[in-house]
């Protein structure tokens, strides 16, 4: 049996998904769709380069048109920009029978899109996950076993210019995963007033800090992206059971655990790239009809909390009312 898999949007991240599918152990027909011919050509180069290390068992087709997709797809990975993702999903569901979606973050820039897509995927019986992949890392699965039963947890994520708007959802999702909590309050009062341009034209970014906590005050956290310097992203997790320091760029982690008398222990983890992950997620879904990524419903709740925080900040610092936040 051959699986039908589509990747919609092959910018940098979409290409990484495609590279990973070289390793997929199930024979598949892979459909790569992007309106930009140059992006398609670049993705073909990346895929062919990955073939140097792995034997190909897949048939890959490239097109600029969604209409070139078959009528039935097992998996669709939507890696478009956030501002067109809702329309792309609507078009796909109207034209193709889809079994599973994997959506890139940041999901949508407007609040109304979340309920619309939730209704649409439920109506069409599509199972859907969002690619907040830190839940799948060995590092964080081990940390969860250590800290999830803590009475109080404090988490800091700090670094220079790491994309607070674009990437905070990864860390809010990580906190939800580590603590089994999802009722959060977020504050925008410590975000910098200046809204900066993203590296991607037409999109924006934020610097400063988001401060948050759970409604029961069990978990407190801070996400800080400094608009100066070159501090690498560092994460600190502190509870009565453990203190853990993580430098994701290298995988270096220091554990100080109560049951080990708080003696520091260094360990280095491999932080997987997207090109090393997508095939495993799809294989997991094929085997169990589930995977370690958050469901659309779980992630939608967290996305909306962050989106409202950013919209509040925009409306406090802009002359006109703002209903969308164009982050990627």
Automatic annotation (TrEMBL):
<dbReference type="GO" id="GO:0000166">
    <property type="term" value="F:nucleotide binding"/>
</dbReference>
<dbReference type="InterPro" id="IPR051450">
    <property type="entry name" value="Gfo/Idh/MocA_Oxidoreductases"/>
</dbReference>
<dbReference type="InterPro" id="IPR036291">
    <property type="entry name" value="NAD(P)-bd_dom_sf"/>
</dbReference>
<protein>
    <submittedName>
        <fullName>Oxidoreductase family protein</fullName>
    </submittedName>
</protein>
<dbReference type="InterPro" id="IPR000683">
    <property type="entry name" value="Gfo/Idh/MocA-like_OxRdtase_N"/>
</dbReference>
<feature type="domain" description="Gfo/Idh/MocA-like oxidoreductase N-terminal">
    <location>
        <begin position="3"/>
        <end position="131"/>
    </location>
</feature>
<dbReference type="Pfam" id="PF01408">
    <property type="entry name" value="GFO_IDH_MocA"/>
</dbReference>
């Amino acid at each position: 049996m051959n699986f039908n898999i589509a990747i919609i949007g092959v910018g940098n991240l979409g290409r990484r998904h495609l590279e990973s599918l070289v390793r997929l152990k199930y024979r598949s027909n892979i459909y790569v769709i992007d309106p930009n011919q140059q992006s398609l050509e670049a993705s073909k180069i990346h895929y062919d380069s990955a073939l140097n290390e792995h034997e190909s068992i897949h048939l890959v087709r490239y097109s600029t048109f969604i209409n070139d997709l078959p009528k039935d797809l097992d998996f669709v990975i939507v890696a478009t920009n956030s501002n067109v993702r809702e329309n792309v999903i609507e078009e796909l569901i109207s034209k193709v029978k889809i079994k599973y979606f994997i959506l890139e973050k940041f999901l949508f820039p407007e609040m109304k899109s979340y309920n619309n897509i939730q209704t649409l995927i439920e109506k069409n019986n599509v199972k859907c996950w969002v690619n907040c992949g830190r839940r799948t890392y060995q590092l964080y699965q081990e940390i969860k076993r250590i800290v999830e039963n803590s009475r109080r947890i404090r988490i800091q994520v700090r670094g220079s210019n790491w994309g607070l708007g674009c990437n905070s959802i990864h860390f809010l999702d990580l906190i939800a995963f580590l603590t089994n909590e999802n009722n959060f309050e977020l504050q925008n009062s410590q975000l910098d007033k200046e809204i900066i341009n993203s590296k991607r034209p037409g999109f924006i970014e934020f610097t400063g800090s988001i401060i948050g906590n759970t409604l029961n005050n069990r978990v407190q956290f801070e996400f800080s992206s400094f608009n100066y310097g070159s501090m690498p992203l560092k994460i600190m997790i502190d509870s009565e059971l453990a203190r853990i320091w993580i430098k994701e760029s290298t995988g270096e982690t220091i554990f100080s655990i109560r049951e080990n008398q708080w003696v520091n222990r260094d360990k280095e983890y491999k932080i997987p790239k997207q090109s090393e992950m997508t095939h495993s997620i799809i294989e997991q879904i094929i085997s169990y009809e589930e995977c370690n990524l958050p469901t659309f419903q779980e992630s939608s709740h967290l996305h909306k909390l962050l989106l409202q925080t950013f919209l509040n900040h925009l409306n406090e610092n802009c002359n006109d009312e703002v209903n969308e936040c164009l982050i990627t």
